[in-house]
Design goal:
mainly beta; four-stranded antiparallel sheet; about 90 residues; 1 helix
Amino acid sequence: MEDSGESKAVLREWGPQTHIVRQIPATVQRGLFKQDLNFTCISALADFVAIGTDQGAVYWYNRRTGESQTLQCEVRNQEPLQIRIVKL
């Protein structure tokens, strides 16, 4: 394989990211019952992390500010199976 001289930037996490995971609830309320929340996909950049769940929500975390948001899929309760953050 020939080296083109370009180096690719790779994002690696060397420590546990519990501060992000703690902001996501372990269960969600569905009517009278609680259901476990499972991750279906994840995407990360240096500044952001997006985590999709089996309940149709995407949790968006800003690494610079430490703030998180919950985003809902257009079709409720549809699992996002792939997610990708695109830097513009």
